[in-house]
Amino acid sequence: MTDKNVDVLAIGNAIVDVIADSGDAFLERHGMTKGSMRLIDSAEAERLYADMGPGRELSGGSAANTVAGLAALGLSTGFIGQLGDDDLGKIFTHDISSLGVDFATAPRSDAGPTARCLILVTPDAQRTMSTFLGAAQQLDRSTIDEERIARARILYLEGYLWDPEEPRAAMQAAIEIARATGTRIAFTLSDSFVVERHRDDFLLLLDEKKIDILFANEMEILHLAQETGLEAAFDRIGAMVTTLVVTRSEHGAIGRSGGERARVKAEPIERLVDTTGAGDLFAAGFLAGEALGKPLEDSLRLGAIAASEVIQHYGARPELDLAALAGPLLR
Amino acid sequence: MTDKNVDVLAIGNAIVDVIADSGDAFLERHGMTKGSMRLIDSAEAERLYADMGPGRELSGGSAANTVAGLAALGLSTGFIGQLGDDDLGKIFTHDISSLGVDFATAPRSDAGPTARCLILVTPDAQRTMSTFLGAAQQLDRSTIDEERIARARILYLEGYLWDPEEPRAAMQAAIEIARATGTRIAFTLSDSFVVERHRDDFLLLLDEKKIDILFANEMEILHLAQETGLEAAFDRIGAMVTTLVVTRSEHGAIGRSGGERARVKAEPIERLVDTTGAGDLFAAGFLAGEALGKPLEDSLRLGAIAASEVIQHYGARPELDLAALAGPLLR
Q1: Residue A270 has pLDDT above 70, yes or no
Q2: What is the CATH number of domain B6-13+60-110+136-330?
Q3: B55 contacts A95? CB cut-off 8 A
Q4: For a FRET experiment, which of A44, A254, A308, B249 has its CA 20 to 30 Å from that of B311?
Q5: Predicted TM-score of the model (pTM)
Q6: What is the dotted CATH code of the domain comprising A6-13+61-112+137-326?
Q7: B-chain residue closest to A50, CA distance
């Protein structure tokens, strides 16, 4: 078996976030569900952007945020995602590379513009996202390098990328390679609407034991299990996967791994600014613990610490030294 | 005389800021003077960007930040600046237009890429800037619309734009139009190195009474007057211009208008994050007071309030409702 010398390799949407403040009325006028993500085409992206206030552009993308967090925690990471050959693509490449993430997917000039996610942050710090996938949905099988997957301890996949056809096929191929090379597979459900669109696929992946670590928030696990109670959903899905983590915003998180269960509270924060990236960074902290062989409760705590940092500023990537915040938990 | 129905029209560099955290050692390694701005070419911009940490992209440009602040204070504003035909140009256009600023300079595909300013923020919240001017330095005489200048109460010009030849000629033309149409001319010295490069020009402008309102910080006024004491510099330059404003960071600001003098303290702040835009927003507050015919001290106070907001977050444009912060001072 290939030597495992990378902690986490992620496959995800390579996206630049455009973050603007917004009132609730703006969301209503544009028919958005607060806290959710919807896909939009380029015409809608232009309409919405023209109507939005001034933006802050920061690199984003769910799984990309997670590897950024893992890198900030000192782990070795890689990322696979498709960019267009434009300014936003250069921004994404710079930001992720400067964190030390091994990102080697070449931008493509024939794939359309780099994906952007228009994120409206309401005064309650919730984020509502409209994503124009652009080049990201052109991610194809050719970007999946068998050797890179074989060298990773954990392969991390985002549910958002299950929407477009080519990336879905690419992720399915990556799963098979991971299975054959002893790489553990972690998967995030991403969004309850994503779960609604792909419930059968996701349940089949679990049935076939193609996921080792599953991340969900409360809404997502309820939608996946088609239950109305968290306990029932947690038990039903938990029985299908080695490790299940359910994040519960200000109520912390619960986890289950083999027969063991644990729960952690949310970390105290000074001020809530923008919840974008909370789930992504929770996954980063948890996966760091997993990759380092920490007990379940410590991994959950690492997740809570990483999530608490990212919600205290705009943008979905850490600004403070996460390794210092995590302290002895990482050693 | 044309009806004056715009409060402030500004001519400046149309720039997107790329803001990254940095240590002092990084500045030293790259031979930068902390707190200053230097011009770099595209090769140096690429080298420096490659070496920087992850960035936040936000629209910037000194005079553009000032009109953004004026718009946030409820004043009617316009902006003239040259962009390239690229993603960063679209970001700049969106951001300034969404604030209600009348920005009508067409991007040019033959002018090179949109200007960017690489801003390194050290832990003391100071910003050190390296600017690649790109398309901004192609701003030419054809962008100067006589009718627009005639309609403005105040024409605001940034010293930074005195460096490249074509924009300098464009600003000189704008000054003549303003003089002929009863539009007051405000000018900011921008940076002490800019003053060193163009001292004779700036003193000539003052001698010829082509500037009505001059903005400087302490270093800039000392360099312009070639004095070592603030009082002497303030008196010497103050005698050459109707209104002089000298900002003094945490020590507040002093102003002189006709025979009158006034000083204000800096506004108290909760936390200092990034001083980028402090001078630009001070100018916004002060010009709002001037355009509304407020007493000197009130205008200085408006400047201090606007500056205090922008230094408490990353980026050089206001995030909070400046009109609400200013309160009764604006009415």
Answers
A1: yes
A2: 3.40.1190.20
A3: yes
A4: A308
A5: 0.94
A6: 3.40.1190.20
A7: B94
